Amino acid sequence: MINSRLALVLVLSSMAVIFIAQNVAVVEVRFLFWRASISSALLIFFALLLGLVLGWSTHVYLLYRRSKNELIFYRRT
């Protein structure tokens, strides 16, 4: 019997390979004074990675602020 996690990893990996194979075209990215030529699959991957890091950082910061506020509240009572 195949482990469900292994099956999920295999399905997601195969979808990632198909995505990369279909998006090999090079696109030019211009931002302010910079120009870069990069594969569209890599561009999407980096955008996803940036969003993941920013979302995780925001989540950790908000948890830190909430725990700090709860600590101050408990000290007052």
Tell me the layout of helices and strands.
Layout: H1 4-22, E1 26-31, E2 34-39, H2 40-76
A few lines on this structure:
73% of the residues lie in helices and 16% in strands. The protein has helices spanning 4-22, 40-76; strands spanning 26-31, 34-39.
Describe this entry's structure for a reader.
The protein is α+β, with helices and mostly antiparallel strands. It has one domain. The protein is built from 2 helices and 2 strands. A two-stranded antiparallel ribbon has the order 1-2. Strand 1 and strand 2 form a beta hairpin. It starts with a helix and ends with a helix. The relative contact order is 0.07.
Please describe the structure with a list of short key phrases separated by commas or semicolons.
two-stranded antiparallel sheet; alpha+beta; 16% strand; 77 residues; 2 strands
Query: How much β-strand is present in the residues?
Result: 15-25%
What is the overall number of helices?
Answer: 2
State the separation between the terminal residues, measured CA to CA.
56 Å
Question: Please, how many domains?
Answer: 1
The string of secondary-structure elements, in order, is HEEH
Overall SS class: alpha+beta
β-strand number: 2
Uncertain runs? none
Helix content: over 70%
Mean pLDDT: 83
Strand order of the largest sheet: 1-2
Rg result: 21 Å
Largest sheet: 2 strands, antiparallel
Shape: flat
